[in-house]
User: Which sequence fits this backbone?
């Protein structure tokens, strides 16, 4: 190594400053221009320049002078401008039903639609849904976000999605070629955790577990989503937790998915309805034992559970929380809080929209010609 450090370009500095300012306001905070500068460590001149550009590009809007400030010229209060840019968000967590939505720059869903796919969702279905949402608004589209089950590479290639039956699919490239809009593709459980972090109750060190047809997890440490060295962090469905358990569809015995997935629990309850409470409590306790290890290893503060309310109910949550507390609590370490996700069916849509917003907002200045076109 030469020991020299590359000097940041003006464009890099601009992107860094816009990112820092936007973080202070997202999703719905109102702060004066002067206080933004203090929070992110910029001079009054640089803060005015950065936030002025963000107002011009319809990222922020001015609400008027800050009446809480003292004498002299009062600084403008700023908030996110939710009336201009739109984000297309697609949720493919159900392979038979593609969900789509338009969101504003605060991550709020302003319109939604669905596309049934009885034979399984295809790339053409995804592109059709994106084009339908783009055509439904006269406002400019910041970007498209697509959340899928399975393993997604950073370049937007779906390496493997068992439920969608996709392998090595360059979804990002295909959607961008068809729509001309910047597209981000990610794992659906990661998207759900992002939504729970920004719009729910999660701390910067938390985990989300999704229980549906399959079982998935997402991990956030110090406010960073952990994807792992091969983009497979959170792929816990086919980890064997009971060698004597039922045979899983992957061929192994006793995988976590074969014991606590929605399909498996619904099947057991249908066979023995009178034992519903016991079945769900056992499943919750099992999940608690499994999650106690990463919770203790990583010092997690929260674990959110996302699933159908008839499965992830009070008995399930209480049993999971009791088991985690029993197996990991010591004088110096507390068990994490366990709770159901509170964002409803829009959880994944809002999360994937948020990923697009936080990734692409700093690059809006490169697309300034759109401001005058809308």
Assistant:
């Amino acid at each position: 190594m030469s020991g020299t450090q590359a000097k940041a370009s003006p464009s890099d500095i601009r992107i860094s400053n816009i990112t820092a300012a936007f973080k202070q306001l997202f999703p719905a905070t109102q702060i004066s221009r002067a206080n933004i500068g203090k929070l992110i460590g910029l001079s009054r001149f640089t803060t005015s320049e950065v936030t002025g550009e963000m107002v011009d590009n319809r990222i922020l809007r001015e609400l008027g002078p800050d009446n809480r400030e003292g004498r002299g010229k009062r600084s403008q209060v700023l908030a996110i401008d939710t009336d201009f840019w739109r984000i297309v968000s697609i949720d493919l967590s159900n392979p038979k039903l593609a969900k789509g939505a338009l969101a504003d720059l605060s991550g709020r869903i302003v319109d939604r639609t669905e596309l049934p796919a009885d034979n399984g969702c295809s790339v053409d279905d995804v592109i059709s849904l994106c084009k339908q949402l783009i055509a439904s608004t006269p406002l400019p589209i910041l970007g498209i976000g697509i959340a899928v089950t399975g393993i997604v590479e950073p370049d937007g290639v779906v390496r493997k999605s068992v439920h969608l039956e996709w392998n090595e699919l360059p979804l990002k490239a295909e959607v961008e070629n068809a729509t001309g809009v910047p597209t981000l593709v990610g794992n659906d459980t990661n998207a759900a955790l992002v939504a729970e972090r920004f719009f729910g109750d999660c701390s910067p060190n938390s985990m989300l577990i999704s229980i549906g047809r399959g079982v998935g997890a997402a991990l956030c440490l110090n406010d960073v989503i952990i994807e792992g060295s091969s983009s497979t962090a959170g792929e816990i469905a086919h980890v064997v937790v009971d060698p004597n358990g039922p045979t899983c569809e992957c061929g192994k015995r006793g995988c976590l998915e074969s014991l606590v997935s929605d399909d498996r629990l619904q099947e057991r309850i249908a066979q023995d309805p009178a034992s519903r409470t016991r079945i769900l409590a056992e499943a919750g306790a099992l999940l608690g034992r499994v999650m106690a290890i990463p919770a203790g290893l990583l010092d997690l503060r929260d674990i959110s559970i996302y699933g159908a309310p008839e499965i992830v109910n009070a008995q399930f949550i209480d049993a999971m929380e009791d088991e985690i507390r029993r197996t990991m609590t010591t004088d110096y370490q507390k068990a994490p809080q366990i709770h159901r996700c509170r964002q409803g069916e829009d959880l994944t849509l809002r999360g994937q929209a948020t990923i697009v917003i936080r990734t692409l907002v700093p690059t809006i200045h490169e697309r300034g010609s759109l401001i005058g076109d809308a």
Remarks:
- The chain has a mean pLDDT of 93.
- The chain has three domains: 10-80, 86-191+349-365, 201-342.
